[in-house]
UniProtKB/TrEMBL annotation:
<keyword id="KW-0963">Cytoplasm</keyword>
<dbReference type="GO" id="GO:0000287">
    <property type="term" value="F:magnesium ion binding"/>
</dbReference>
<dbReference type="Pfam" id="PF00871">
    <property type="entry name" value="Acetate_kinase"/>
</dbReference>
<keyword id="KW-0479">Metal-binding</keyword>
<feature type="binding site">
    <location>
        <position position="14"/>
    </location>
    <ligand>
        <name>ATP</name>
    </ligand>
</feature>
<feature type="binding site">
    <location>
        <position position="383"/>
    </location>
    <ligand>
        <name>Mg(2+)</name>
    </ligand>
</feature>
<keyword id="KW-0808">Transferase</keyword>
<protein>
    <recommendedName>
        <fullName>Acetate kinase</fullName>
        <ecNumber>2.7.2.1</ecNumber>
    </recommendedName>
</protein>
<feature type="binding site">
    <location>
        <begin position="206"/>
        <end position="210"/>
    </location>
    <ligand>
        <name>ATP</name>
    </ligand>
</feature>
<feature type="binding site">
    <location>
        <position position="91"/>
    </location>
    <ligand>
        <name>substrate</name>
    </ligand>
</feature>
<keyword id="KW-0547">Nucleotide-binding</keyword>
<comment type="subunit">
    <text>Homodimer.</text>
</comment>
<dbReference type="InterPro" id="IPR023865">
    <property type="entry name" value="Aliphatic_acid_kinase_CS"/>
</dbReference>
<feature type="site" description="Transition state stabilizer">
    <location>
        <position position="180"/>
    </location>
</feature>
<feature type="binding site">
    <location>
        <position position="7"/>
    </location>
    <ligand>
        <name>Mg(2+)</name>
    </ligand>
</feature>
<dbReference type="GO" id="GO:0005524">
    <property type="term" value="F:ATP binding"/>
</dbReference>
<dbReference type="GO" id="GO:0006085">
    <property type="term" value="P:acetyl-CoA biosynthetic process"/>
</dbReference>
């Protein structure tokens, strides 16, 4: 069965067509500038054939129609008819407290997503608009919502509660939710398979433009670094991560920002970009460090130090750790970041192989020495495959 995986933002829509029988990606593409002038679609098949078209897409509906056209294109598509799409998996940012796993989409699911839109005002409107358009353009094709948050829904209340009045939590659902769930789920499942142990305590470090860490015990998330929104936790590319809320109010007044500006500032102008005053991209920062840029070095050191502290606290939460896994663009590719994080970790039972860390490798790459009590490895994430797997499973179960 072919699964169309859709990751829709407010003005862009990324998609992949995956043949789930052998878990291969047939093609991937992106629609840009939805709702604006100068829209375009770019698609590439696994064997390198390209489809490009400049066309305005006033809404997500026109974007989906364009995607279907590209999928069946004679020269650069991968299927000959839309009927070859067995199901659609939608990445949806926020489940609120209403869902604890992925769900087959029906009218009620859409209604609940609309109710929860205020929890993710930047992403949810695009997610919902896309789901509605897809249901209109592809009637009868089963669709599944795969949430960024549900993998973390196994966190116990002591982990997800903030120190705020219980009534405020109850009324407004202000609590830690956690994000990047599809990645943490995929990587922890693959890690559990690899470790082959009945019981496991794993720390997953998903380090990309957005970064988060999760603590996974026997396959279930017990804590994670992102919070009510993806802003909490690590120092990321452009996000501040943990910060004293009183410092935010102080800066807001000094820099004459509105409350909305202040949240935007913390999301877009801070993190490694803010500290380095140069860039959020790890490759640019590494190059600058080589050239002696001290602020770039400080940005990466501060980010690494925050990761190290989270690993320590999650090891405590898990009551010990069997494996630390790196994933995401930085986790998979930046030996520099991994080295900074893994220095002086012997106290935890880690014997990190700093030479192996410098070697490039495809797939799972062991970075700890054979005698290390705690295994450390890189495991490439695949969020689209994770969504496709969930979608196929739910659709099959729904048909029974
Ligand atoms: P997103 O969160 O947008 O999915 P990614 O997981 O793709 O992001 O990660 C992007 C980050 O990975 C960027 O900071 C980028 O510089 C970094 N990255 C990608 N390749 C390398 C590399 N070879 N060396 C160092 N950093 C890398």
């Amino acid at each position: 069965m072919n699964i169309l995986v859709i990751n829709a933002g407010s003005s862009s829509l990324k998609y992949q067509l995956i043949d789930i029988a052998n878990e291969t990606m047939l093609l991937k593409g992106i629609c840009d500038r939805i709702g604006m002038k100068g829209g375009s679609i770019n698609q590439k098949t696994a064997d390198g054939r390209q489809f490009r078209l400049e066309e305005d897409m006033p809404t997500h509906k026109e974007a989906i129609e364009l995607v279907l056209k590209a999928l069946v294109d004679k020269e650069a598509g991968a299927i000959s008819s839309v009927s070859e799409i067995g199901a659609v998996g939608h990445r949806v940012l926020h489940s609120g407290e209403d869902f604890h796993s992925s769900v087959v989409i029906d009218d009620e699911v859409v209604r609940i997503c609309e109710k929860n839109a205020e929890l993710g005002p930047l992403h949810m409107p695009g997610n919902i608009a896309c789901i509605k358009s897809c249901r209109e353009v592809m009637p009868g094709v089963p669709m599944v919502a795969v949430f960024d948050t549900t993998f973390h829904s196994t966190m116990p209340p002591k982990a997800f509660m903030y120190g705020i009045p219980y009534s405020v939590y109850q009324q407004y659902k202000v609590r830690k939710y956690g994000f990047h769930g599809t990645s943490h789920k995929f990587v922890s499942e693959e890690a559990v398979k690899f470790l082959g142990a009945e019981h496991s305590r794993i720390i997953i470090c998903h380090l990309g433009n957005g970064s988060s860490i999760s603590a996974v015990k026997d396959g279930k998330c017990i804590d994670t670094s992102m919070g009510f929104t993806p802003l909490e936790g690590l120092i990321m590319g452009t996000r501040s991560g943990d910060i004293d809320p009183a410092a935010v109010e102080f800066m807001r007044a000094k820099l004459s920002m509105t409350p909305e500006d202040a949240v935007q500032f913390l999301n877009k102008k801070c993190g490694m970009l803010g500290i380095s005053e140069l860039d959020s991209d790890m490759r640019v920062l590494e190059k600058a460090i080589e050239e002696g840029n001290e602020k770039a070095a400080l940005a990466v050191e501060a980010a690494a130090y925050r990761i190290k502290k989270y690993i320590g606290s999650f090891a405590a939460a898990l009551g010990g750790v069997d494996a630390i896994v790196f994933t995401g663009g930085i986790g998979e590719n930046s030996s520099y970041m991994r080295k900074l994080v893994m220095q002086d970790m012997e106290y935890l039972g880690v014997e990190f192989d700093f030479d192996e860390n410098e070697k490039r490798a495809e797939g799972l790459h062991m970075l700890s020495k054979s005698e290390s009590y705690v295994k450390v490895f890189v495991l490439p994430t695949n969020e689209e495959l994770s969504i496709a797997r969930e979608t196929a499973q739910l659709v099959a179960a729904d048909k029974k």
